[in-house]
Amino acid sequence: MIERIWTETDNAIQVKSLADAVIGETIADATVTATVTDPAGNAVTGVGTITLAAVSGSAGDYAGQIPAAAELVAGTIYTIAITIIGNGYTTKYTLKRLAAQKKN
Length: 104
Fold this sequence. Notes:
Elements: E1 4-6, E2 11-15, E3 31-37, E4 50-54, E5 62-66, E6 77-86, E7 89-100
Parallel strand pairs: 1-7
Antiparallel strand pairs: 2-5, 3-4, 3-6, 4-5, 6-7
């Protein structure tokens, strides 16, 4: 089942335990960014490039958020593209998330 992101709400994005696979050490000084696109590949209005900051006191954790101002449409599947630059390497991966509206 595809994970969800919520409309009209801040949504957390996290990278956990980032480590150099060769030497096995965590990476606490990487540059980690994310973008959010719709099914047509267009950037979502209200988002821009998201910077994930290193979480203080963690072992290679990074966190950022998709702002509540993001114009997400419930029922649409979005792509979150994450780019990590650290220890001389660049890694890119994508996540698919279904937008949903929270019910009170």
